[in-house]
Amino acid sequence: MRTHETLIHEGVFVGFLAAAMMLLRESSGMGEEALWFLLAAVVVNAILLRTRRWSPAFASSISITANSLLIAWIVEATGGGSSLFWPLFLLPLYTTGLAHPAITLAVAALHAAMLASFHLDASMLEFAIKAGFLLVSAWTIARGANRERAAIGDA
């Protein structure tokens, strides 16, 4: 049975995918790659939703990894360091915060490392701002998740 948290997360993910598709549709030459990204994201997440009931921790770990790689793929395909899709890296951070708050900052650091690979020829200041945003967001997500877990545990 799906929980309220899962439904919210699925809705947010589908909403971000729809927004990404709308933006990608406007990009020149991105039609086919955007469809592959969407297809891969939908298939991976549909499979993971089916496996979640057997092992939620394993499914969420695979979800974090798969979605991070899919987002890295779309960032690379839409311009690397100059891509406007780098904020999609927040989606796996929310999954991490809900499932494994203790490692949220580590996942953000890995996302920052992925961003660094796209910024080898771009501005270091731009990379520092993006990485800082991801790290501060991860800290905020983890802090909120830990507070919520503590409140539920105390109730």
Shape: globular
Unreliable sequence segments: none
Pattern of helices and strands: HHHHHH
Our count of helices gives 6
Classify the beta-strand content into a percent band: under 5%
Q: Tell me roughly what share of residues is in helical segments.
A: over 70%
For the largest beta-sheet, the strand count, sense and barrel status come to:
none
Number of strands: 0
Write up this protein.
25% of the residues are buried. The mean pLDDT is 79. The protein is 79% helix and 0% strand. It has helices spanning 4-26, 31-51, 56-77, 90-99, 104-118, 124-154. The protein has 155 residues and is an all-alpha fold. The protein is built from 6 helices and no strands. The longest helix is centred in the last third of the chain and has 31 residues, at 124-154. It is globular.
